[in-house]
Every structure is written in structure tokens, then in C-alpha cells.
Amino acid sequence: MENQKIERMRELAGILTEASKAYYQEDRELMSNYEYDRLYDELEQLERESGIVLTGSPTAKVGYEALDELPKERHESPMLSLDKTKDIEGLKNFAGDHQTIVSWKLDGLTVVLTYQDGSLQKAVTRGNGETGEVITNNARVFRNIPLRISYQGELILRGEAVLTYTDFARINEEIEDVDAKYKNPRNLCSGSVRQLNNEITARRGVRFYAFALVRAEGVDFGNSRKNQLEWLKTQGFDVVEHHVADAASMEETVQFFADKIQYYDVPSDGLVLTYDDIAYGQSLGRTAKFPRDSIAFKWKDEISETKLLEIEWSPSRTGLINPVAIFEPVEIEGSTVSRASVHNLSIMKSLELGIGDTITVYKANMIIPQIADNLTRSGRIEIPKVCPACGSRTRIQNIRGVETLYCTNENCVAKKIKAYTLFVSRDAMNIDGLSEATLEKFIEKGFICSFANIFTLEKYRDEIVKMEGFGEKSFDNLMAGIENARHTTLPRLLFGLGIPGIGAANAKMLCRHFDYDLDRVRAATMEELAEIDGIGEVLAGAVVDYFRDEENNIGLDRLLEQLEIERPRPEDEAELTLAGKTFVITGTVRHFSNRNELKAYIESRGGKVTGSVTKKTDYLINNDTTSSSSKNKKAKELNIPILSEEAFLKL
């Protein structure tokens, strides 16, 4: 019954949040006020009855707080790592005659939670096993940790803080700089959990899955770990997926998880086996390194033999040229793979790779293709003397014993991937289908060497449709996106050129000042540009320098041959109600989905958004107008109005 209440609370929270977002941010109604109030009252009643308030509940308000550092705290008892096996027979032997609990071994950051009198009191990371960092403020904004529970005694539990692959991809897509993108969900999760400002943690979408109960005085669990996990569910916790198994059913249980991992959205690097009998497990004690009541199961890699066809040299914007192995397609862990990164020259040399060699490949953690071994070891790989993207000389660098290959050309087109990513972005040319990864592939193949080349990709149709991840339909969609982008506006074009410091708002200011005449912008002097409100000498110098460069002008002229520049309509200009005004945005927003959306709204009406409060700021937007944040204090010192979103929208 308790679990049904919690599920209903989750359902109500989702419905009410969606309805509120639609009403306040999208100007549409999903339900009447009466219906909203009825569901809200039902949620409040369920929270009173259960004594549980879930994270994200519309009835709960969690404040944001910034810290100077994360305090350290020593654990009551050391948090040991687990002994490991890759052999199902090892699991069967471990189980013996006992019933066990088999669960995911999640790949995130272990966190210990402490509740007192029904409220979350403390959250501490595993750290080095002896000492962890106190992250209580951050845990309060995890997506699924209950802020209040019905149990009133001291509760201590352990779980894994994780980021799903979906959220990992979402966050990485928002990062334009390819070098700033996160390498894997675990690293991003670790950084998110340990933020000094929990507003950042909240935006990341960290989730918590309980996997062990340490203490809950006065509760009888019938000496069963499974009962402990089921009880934690009644308190509102998401518990790691688990199944009961003995030696006889072990193989079937492990296969269940193996079948599921291909589609599981939460990163996992194996399974954990724990004795269900609490007293028996505790009686076994521990070694210096491992507890004896649990063991980790690492996936036994499925290894396939194949033939190395070529090494593809893949340049990046840092100048690093990565070797990628292309081999005859093989089926591994339920999918076909035909390529794997070799990472660097040192690894390539240690494998003694050669074209035509017989190699073995596997999927690390059943996901990422890797070369396991080279059975032939011919060593017949020629390291390129020139960059495949620009043809300039390459250089081998040796840093701390690791050899890597670099392009020496500062103007290598592959190094300019960030510029191309900006050019096709939503606020610039807005070309769907040209992700950063796709741009890198096209640059590597030599299809794109300038902005203008993007509009001539049609001539590579036969080659593109055969590329991995492409086909006729994808190519046609890309061509449609490129065709739409031919019809653009001057502010979009100017922003897309990537002139240092010229953002979308400044591009609009320049265009308005010069009456949307590109020739006038290109011919403008430092003095003319510096006089424009919001430009100043530094940005003026950047614009002059850009258009003084002959190569930039040649490239722009070729690009203009592919475009149709639309002039703004009079009614568009009439909407610039915030022209000349400078805003700073801080805190959380309610009427907009995020602060970037509010920023875009301001800029679309001629305003400018900056990151810090100065005497040039006209308004600070903060829904918490009475907060003692540094930006609020600065605004008050300078007599700058502090507006809530409601007050801002009335401007």
C-alpha cells in the first residue's frame, strides 16, 4: 500500500510540474485551476499520510547555496571495495547453499545518507573509503532523494549517485567546445555531486539508487537484505534493481542482466552478489581489503576474431590525430562493430598493428569496442607524415612516455571544428543534422574546408550515404536543413562568423547601427564601432581585425554566393522594446525553461545580457529579490533594480 502511495505521489508531481511549466512558461493550459488545485491537495494529503516528501514535489522548496569548500568527514567504519570475479562458476561457489541478492554494480559515485527525525541530515561521499566529503546541500537537489521520510529514527544507507546516458548526452550537447565535453557519465557525475554550488548539481539531474541499509534502529527486517531494500522503497527511495538467486538460478539471473545492459540507461560495470542472510554475512567478517558478505561480478568480455582493414587517422580541434582501427564487421554483445579507437601511437605500437593482421576485439563493459590483442603482429603501419585534414606536416610528441601524433598547422581546418560548430548552431545558421561529430567526419574526409563548402555537400552524396550513421533519408534531411539555412538574416550570419566577442546580441546591435548593410559593417573603422553602445574598443578592434584579414574576406565572399540575406521587416524592428538595456540573470527561473531561454528572449528584443553586475547594468533579474547573494548585494550598492520574472515581464 505504501509503495502505491509513493508511485501516486511521483505521478502527481510529474503531472503538476508539467501543467505548471505549460501555464507559466508556454502560455497554455493543460488543466483548469480547479483540477490543478484538486491534484495538488491530493499530493499534500498523501505526503501527510505517508510522512514522505519526494525531491521535485511542487510542495517542496529547496534553496540553492554556494560553499567555499566541501568539508571532510571520517566514516564510522571503512567503506571497503569488493573482491571481483568474471566467472559465473565463481558466483555459484560464492553462493553455495545460501540465497543471495544479485543487483547492478552502478558506475557512479557512492554516497552515504543519514536521516534523523524523518529529515535528511547529512550526505557524505565514499572518498578514499576512510574519509569522504560532505555534500548534503547537493544531495538535497538530487532528482529522486526524499527530503522527508516517515521513519523517525536514525537511518543510514548507502547508494550510488549516477547520471543516465540520456542526461550525459544532453549536457554534452550543450557544450560547444569539443575539448570541454565530458568523457563519460561517471566523471560528469563525480563533478556534479561535488559542486560547491548546488544549483549546478540540480541542473545536471543526478539520481540516487540505494543499494545497502547500514542502520535503522527498531525495525525488524527478518534477517533479510531483500526485506531491507523493500523497506527502503516504502520510505520513498529508488532502490537498485535486484533479484534473488541461488547457485541453481545464478546463470539465468546473470543472463537477465546481460540481456538488459545494452538498453539500460544507467551506467553499470557489472553486478554485485550479497548474501540475503544478514547475520551469516556479518559473521564472515572481512579481509584487509574486502568484506566477505559480497562479491562483484565483472562482465566476461565476449571476444571476436577479425581482420584489420585500415587505420583511419582522425584529427581533432586540439591538433591531436587519433588512430582508429577499421576492421571486418563482427557481432559482439548483440550488435555489429567495425571500428575501435586505438587512442595513441604508444598503444598502436605495443599492439604491433599492421594492415591485414588478425586481431581480437571486445566491448569494454559490454559497450565500448576495443582491441584486445593482435595475433599476427606484423607492425606494418605507416605513421602519416602529413595531416589528413590540411596536408601540413605532423609531429610525434612524447609526454610522460606516451607518444601522440599532432598536426603542426595552427590553421588546420580540423582545429577549427569549434568555429564550424558555432556556424551551424541554432542562433547562427541553424542547420539541423550537422552535429559536431558529423562535422568532424566531413572535415576529415575533406568535404568541408570553408563555410561555403557546407552549402556544396550535395556533390558528395554517393560517399555520404554510405558513411556510418547515414543513409538516403538522413542525407535528404541534411540537404533540406542546408537549403533552409541559405535564407538567413545578417545578425545570424555575423554571429556565425565567430568574430571574437561578438555574440548574438552584439551582432544584432551592429546590424541595426549600420542599417543591415554588410558592406558598411565590413568597412567600419575602430572609431565608428567603438561609439556603438555595448561594443567598446575591444570588440571594435576584433571586428576591424576580422575584416582586415584578406583570407576572411575571400571566405565571406564565397559564402555570400551561397546565401540569400533577408532584411528585417518593419514589424520586427518595432518589437525591440529592450534595446539599449543591459541585464544580469541569477538564480532559478520559473517562467522560462532555463536561463539561456530567458537570455534569448531578452536579446530577441534588443537587450543585452552580461554575467556580472556593474554600473552599466540596468536590471538584475532574480526571483529571490530579498536574497543576500553577492549579485543582489552589488545591485543594491549600485541602486540597480532587482526584478522578479513577473516584474521583468511587465516591462
List the helices and strands and how they pair.
Layout: H1 2-25, H2 33-50, E1 72-74, E2 84-85, H3 88-95, E3 100-106, E4 109-116, E5 119-125, E6 131-133, H4 136-139, E7 155-162, H5 165-173, H6 185-193, H7 198-204, E8 207-216, H8 225-234, E9 242-245, H9 250-261, E10 268-275, H10 278-283, E11 294-297, E12 304-315, E13 320-332, E14 335-341, H11 345-351, E15 358-364, E16 368-374, E17 394-399, E18 402-407, H12 417-423, H13 436-445, H14 461-464, H15 472-485, E19 487-489, H16 490-496, H17 504-513, H18 518-523, H19 526-530, H20 536-548, H21 550-560, E20 564-566, H22 570-573, E21 582-585, H23 595-604, E22 608-610, E23 619-621, H24 630-637, E24 642-643, H25 645-649
Parallel strand pairs: 2-11, 19-20, 21-22, 21-23, 23-24
Antiparallel strand pairs: 1-6, 3-9, 3-10, 4-5, 4-7, 7-8, 10-11, 12-13, 12-15, 13-14, 13-18, 15-16, 17-18
Helix pairs in contact: 1-2, 12-13, 16-17
Terminal-residue CA separation: 50 Å
Characterize the main sheet.
7 strands, antiparallel
**What's the CATH topology name of the largest domain?**
D-amino Acid Aminotransferase, Chain A, domain 1
Overall geometry: globular
CATH class of the largest domain: Alpha Beta
Overall SS class: alpha+beta
Regions with little confidence, pLDDT below 50 for 5+ residues: none
Domains (count): 6
* DSSP E strands, number: 24
The mean pLDDT is 84
Strand content: 15-25%
CATH superfamily of the largest domain: DNA ligase/mRNA capping enzyme
Supply the number of helical segments. 25
Question: Architecture of the largest domain in CATH?
Answer: 2-Layer Sandwich
Proportion of residues in helical segments? 25-40%
Q: How large is the radius of gyration?
A: 29 Å
